[in-house]
Amino acid sequence: MSDTHVTCPNCGYGFDNLRKSTRMFDCPSCGTTLFREGAAVNPVGNNGEMHDYPMLLDVNDSVTIHGKKCLVVGHARYDYGRGTWDEFWIENSAGEGAWLSIDEGDVAVQYPLGGRLAPSRSDPPAVGEKVHHAGRDYTVTEGDTAKCIAVRGQFPELIQVDDAHYFVNASGPAGQILSGEFWEGGHAWSDGEWLDPFTLKVERLDGSRVA
User: Fold this and answer.
1) Cα(90)–Cα(201) distance, integer angstroms
2) HSE (side-chain half, CA atoms, 13 Å) at 210
3) Cβ–Cβ < 8 Å for 86, 100
4) Quick check: 188 pLDDT over 90?
5) Residue 177 in contact with residue 183, Cβ under 8 Å?
6) 181 exposed, middle or buried (CB, 10 Å; 0-12, 13-18, 19+)?
7) Is residue 1 pLDDT above 70, yes or no?
8) What pLDDT band is residue 4 in, cutting at 50, 70 and 90?
9) Is pLDDT above 90 for 104?
10) Pseudo-torsion of CA 57, 62, 66, 67, nearest 10°?
11) Residue 23 in 3-state DSSP?
């Protein structure tokens, strides 16, 4: 799933393993965030400071969820005032992607919704409000503002350090998750489920396994 060779316009670092889905990526040489649109690659900021601490996953690890193996392609960290959480963009061998979220030991996988698959509303619902989706009612349990503080790796969309958005999380009747993100001029929805972190099979880039 790699794409053609490109170089960082800021320092000349060469990328030989960009995925076809990648539109945004960070330069490990100079720390510049790059955005690809067609044949053009342009700098759009910096990749922020990703403080190191023990993590279940890292970019270039493989993770198996429900028997399906995916590659960890990108890592974004968000600050929501009370703490931070980590979002990992993962892709399977067919190039299909999902977000794997880790927040203080809680793990969830969510799949982007588009078009008629997404809830019709474009404004953020209030905590306690019901949102109808996929034949079931979800109850909004959380709403807050999050700011991106660091990015690493590759993403299918533009994620910039210091960008902020309002988010809501809603719970379904059997543990399903529905999340919405809202910013000036746009919004996005995703749905998925909570995961038991002990059921995840993680394989490091060096071939070692995480129990």
Assistant:
1) 14
2) 19
3) no
4) yes
5) no
6) middle
7) no
8) low
9) no
10) -160
11) coil
Can you tell me whether residue 117 is helix, strand or coil?
A: helix
Over residues 58-93, the pLDDT tens digits come to: 999 999 999 999 999 999 999 998 889 999 999 999
Query: Helix or strand or coil: residue 41?
Result: strand
- pTM value? 0.88
Beta-bridge mates of residue 144: 167
d(CA 132, CA 135): 7
What is the DSSP annotation of 118-174?
S-S--SPPPTT-EEEETTEEEEEEEEEEEEEEEEEEEESS---TT-EEEEEEEE-TT
Phi/psi for 43 (5° steps) reads -70, 140
Checking phi first, is residue 162 left (phi over 0); if not, alpha (psi -120 to 50) or beta? left
Burial class, 14, CB count within 10 angstroms (exposed 0-12 / middle 13-18 / buried 19+)? exposed
Instruction: Yes or no: say if 30 and 45 are a contact pair by the CB < 8 Å rule.
Output: no
Bigger pLDDT: 44 or 17?
44
Q: How much is the pLDDT for 149?
A: 96
